Amino acid sequence: MTDLYPVPPAWAARARVDAAKYDAMYAAARDDGEAFWAEQARARLDWTTPFTRVRDVSFDKQDFRIEWFGDGALNVSANCLDRHLAARGNEVAILWEGDNPNEQRRITYRQLHEMVCRMANVLRSYGVVKGDRVTIYLPMIPEAAVAMLACARIGAIHSVVFGGFSPDAIAGRIQDCDSKLVITADEGMRAGKAVPLKANVDEALKHCTSVETVLVIARTGTAVPMQAGRDVAYADAATSASISCASVPMSAEDPLFILYTSGSTGKPKGVLHTGGGYLLWAAMTHELVFDYRQGEVFWCTADVGWVTGHSYVVYGPLANGATVLMFEGVPNWPTTSRMWEIVDRHQVTTLFTAPTALRALMREGDGPVTRTSRKSLKLLGTVGEPINPEAWRWYHDVVGEGRCPIVDTWWQTETGGAMITPLPGAHALKPGSATRPFFGVAPEIVDAEGVVQHGAAEGNLVIADSWPGQMRTVYGDHARFFETYFTTYPGKYFTGDGARRDADGDYWITGRVDDVINVSGHRMGTAEIESALVLHHKVAEAAVVGMPHDLKGQGIYAYVTLNAGVEATPELRAELVKWVRHEIGPIATPDVIQFAPGLPKTRSGKIMRRILRKIAENQVDALGDTSTLADPGVVDDLVANRVHAA
Ligand code: WT7
User: Fold this and answer.
1) Domain parsing of the chain, residue ranges
2) CA angle 33-37-39, nearest 5°?
3) Which atom of ligand 1 is nearest to 418's Cα?
4) Counting atoms of ligand 1 from 1, which one is nearest the CA of 521?
5) What are 261-294's pLDDT values in tens digits?
């Protein structure tokens, strides 16, 4: 028996969507999607040219295309700013708290509009025009949102790179999309320590030829080397820039942004979203999943370097005229009460965070939570990875004092916004279940052959039809887009996740079924970590798999075969860990490195990852059939020398 948490009476009374309305809207979107989405898009967004075509979609190879509102035009920044000015220009758009708890900024819609116009004019003055790519490498400061919206205002395509990525990772992402301009800061601040952002950009740009200009925002004010002719102090450029800038009407299908994410093979891919469908999805899910009301304070803890930050720190809330809290720091600094202190200080009504953060805070006990009030909280949310029922109950009972529903939102960088999620006034909750599809989402569970499973079932999760927030292509590689998502189960979008549907029709995401691992809610391609390892001159071969990890959800377990004659020492192990951090960034830090004289391979040379996964999970009795291995003996050595995580 799973626990069931019915909709609290207060929520049943207040919510925009109750159970009956959910059913009616779900049916309307399914049965007449054209009418449903036309109405939503007209009601929620301001169009400079109204669309007449709602959707034009085919997932088939011959006429593969995904278009929504294709003949309409709009500007995303105007939808997030200008249209709010008359009614709520003086209301707070961004409530910012710095890493240092004494640093606060409150930015109204009017001020944000001016900041965005000014930066848009600066971008123009450095030659950025519609369609150009701009890379943004910033800490969690309001200027990150300003930079994104400034690009959107003039039709430039932004590519935000998370501030925790290394110079090599930045370089790869700049080269892939040929950015002409980079927006960064002198330094970022995290838990009282400075992060050398500008220095990382300098290092990255040694390998990039496309970048003509680097705009440097002063965050800490420390002096950083400035390369003449390339680097510009943003404050200097901004003083002469006008605070008015007309927004450029864009086709609904013009690109809005590229966001790199890891896949099961190759380098990270540039997931591309367009303006119309994406903004509609971000705005509508933000309003209905969180039942957002004017005046409430919405806090999504994600960094803008991830899609969660794009959709629920910037685009969704601002399109809805919300007040969004933006936090620069980390949950446990300077104290383990920090998150709850922020909730109290800013009277946060909705908190949207990741299971990994909750597990870390739960370890500190209830004291750091219960010493705060949290009375302002009405709704809680999670995203990024399956939440274990224990963490769910702690979040519900201790953080929310049993009063706040939890929306466990399943989605992906590719989907633009929440896809399977409870609506707080409509669905009874089950700890660990993402429950029901959002409007217009057609999930199916299929077996390995693609046969659709009905009723209670477990298998692979596909989405049978398009939705407005769907990614449109992999930047620069449309063939890879089709290949990655539409060939495993022809005619359907394959998510890469496994899922179970219970007898009530609720979905439970079981995790990735491909070679992608989920470390603290962040996606890592095992292939990427392997490539980083084999770049080291002492490494012959490497295979990386996920392992269970109490805090991170999954940890990184790397099997490494050294070159002949190289001695396997603890020092080398430490060196390789450092190497991977340097190549990709701290989020890719291996938890375990096991030196392996040989890897389990089939006679055709394919590594049998299934066996490596079992060993990493310490399920050495469940290795399965090893008889097809070229050398079954390697398995004994791997088992005998298994490394237990610290
Ligand atoms: C992968 C997508 C969604 C934005 C943040 C991550 C996993 C995400 C959940 C959830 C179980 C989840 C999936 C998915 N995932 N949310 N609520 N329950 N798993 O975006 O980096 O594109 O990762 O995160 O495995 O495929 P992302």
Assistant:
1) 9-79+272-511, 107-251, 520-641
2) 120
3) 3
4) 6
5) 998 888 899 999 999 999 999 999 999 999 999 9
Q: What is the mean pLDDT of residues 524-551?
A: 95
Ligand 1 centroid–CA 144 distance in Å is 23
Report the C-alpha gap between 8 and 405 in whole angstroms: 8
Selected from 3.10.20.740, 2.40.50.90, 3.40.50.12780, 3.40.50.2300, the CATH number assigned to the domain covering 9-79+272-511 reads 3.40.50.12780
Q: How far is the CA of 70 from the centre of ligand 1 (A)?
A: 28
Task: Say if CB 369 and CB 398 are below 8 A apart.
Answer: yes
Query: What predicted TM-score, i.e. pTM, was given to this entire model?
Result: 0.96
- pLDDT tens for each residue of 306-351: 999 999 999 999 999 999 999 999 999 999 999 999 999 999 999 9
Instruction: Decide if 391 contacts 417 (C-beta within 8 A).
Output: no
Q: Do domains 9-79+272-511 and 107-251 have the same CATH topology?
A: yes
134 is in an annotated binding site: no
Nearest CA owner, ligand 1 atom 27: 412
Tell me the CATH class for 520-641. alpha beta
Question: Does 388 show up as a binding residue in the annotation?
Answer: no
Name the helix (H) or strand (E) containing 526: helix 526-534
CB of 385 within 6 A of ligand 1: the answer is yes
The CATH number of 107-251, from 3.40.50.980, 1.10.760.10, 3.10.310.10, 3.40.50.1110, is 3.40.50.980
Supply the residue whose CA is at minimum distance from atom 14 of ligand 1: 412
Q: What angle do CA 170, 158, 258 make, to 5 degrees?
A: 75
**Statement: residue 1 has pLDDT above 70:** no
> What is the mean pLDDT of the segment spanning 548-571?
96
Q: Is the ipTM of this complex over 0.95?
A: yes
